[in-house]
Amino acid sequence: MSKVLILSGGSQGIGYATVKRFLAEGYRVINLSRRAIDLVGAEHIGVDMQKRDWLDNCIHELEAVVKAADSVVLLHNAARHDGDTVRDLSAENFAEVLQVNLIAPQQLNSRLIPWMKAGSAILYMGSTLSEKAVAGCASYIASKHGVVGLMRATTQDLVGLGIHTACICPGFTDTAMLRGNLGDDPAVMAAITGMVSYGRLIDPAEIVETLYFCANNPVINGSVLHANLGQIER
């Protein structure tokens, strides 16, 4: 059986760990990102999703892969996370974030869904901020709320096709992006882990196990799964 994973943003963090897991399970893996991936067996197509025409140079290659596959997992993982507020977020910057986080996934959907067979899955990477908000990242929050809406629309629009979907919302995961945002201050790290019932960051492999389960279990169709070790609400 020919199984394919097509994902965006697989060169680091959760995406990178996902590529390793799916390769080990016998999937052909195609990564879409600006940065190349250094895993043996993974295929890379260099794209810049910030550009509206990013898909033009690779869509025929992707369509050929999907047409030949028995099943496809399409994982919308890439995201842009800016620091901004509703007081200073410009229309231009807002549009750029929406392009990466929301429009690019739909560009892929519209071109690949017609060729995806029953048994395939479309997975969206959400966030803790897909269903709540904090100060200082307005564009990211708005886009991740939109991702949940797009996933739910996917569920309704694909009824009867045998393609299932879900939105996985990780909590504080131990990635280079998170540590880059937090810095090296132990007090900041303690504050973050103090918001988690287990008192630690999530290992990317834990999110990957959730993704793999969702990819192979249509019973979760239309679900929003919060994979966050239980965040403490204050």
Automatic annotation (TrEMBL):
<dbReference type="InterPro" id="IPR036291">
    <property type="entry name" value="NAD(P)-bd_dom_sf"/>
</dbReference>
<protein>
    <submittedName>
        <fullName>SDR family oxidoreductase</fullName>
    </submittedName>
</protein>
<keyword id="KW-0560">Oxidoreductase</keyword>
<comment type="similarity">
    <text>Belongs to the short-chain dehydrogenases/reductases (SDR) family.</text>
</comment>
<dbReference type="InterPro" id="IPR002347">
    <property type="entry name" value="SDR_fam"/>
</dbReference>
<dbReference type="Pfam" id="PF13561">
    <property type="entry name" value="adh_short_C2"/>
</dbReference>
